[in-house]
Amino acid sequence: MLTIIGCGNLNRSDDxxxxxxxxxxxxxxxxxPYPNVCVYDCGTAGMEVMxxxxxxxxxxxxxxxxxxxxxxxxFKVPGKELEALPxxxxxxxxxxxxxxxVAGRKIFQDDFPQEVTVYLIEAANLDLGLELSSNxxxxxxxxxxxxxxxxxxxxxx
Length: 157
Fold this sequence. Notes:
By secondary structure, this protein is of the alpha/beta class. It has one domain: 3-Layer(aba) Sandwich (Rossmann fold), CATH 3.40.50. It is built from four helices and five strands. The protein has helices spanning 17-31, 46-53, 97-108, 134-153; strands at residues 2-7, 37-43, 58-65, 74-78, 115-122. A five-stranded mixed β-sheet has the order 2-1-3-5-4, sandwiched between helices. Helix 2 (46-53) crosses helix 3 (97-108). The radius of gyration is 15 Å and the shape is globular. The protein starts with a strand and ends with a helix.
């Protein structure tokens, strides 16, 4: 089973890129069904990432980044490199997908994906807004195409 999760905030311009790609992938799968592939829009809910990933063999997370790199740059990173323990907090909004990777592996053990890949697209604009920047749209198209290729290759024989 391949699980793909888009993260981000649709109300913060380029921060919504992961969610937008996930929605496009859901539409793609509605027209081209692959029974071993699930796509979720988890928004900013790290806890939901943990539960949706459970039981999958392979996990792909898509999100925006703000590292100071060139806007539109795409980073494909092994999930192990980005896992982070959550800071002590009583607010679940502070529990992000990087925290979900650590917690999910600890809680679900062998029932949590061992193969995790994270696609990060460097944002140009994180201000309030509903549109992606033009160079972010281009990067989103590239990531969408790469992930549809992965989906096509995921057919279990």
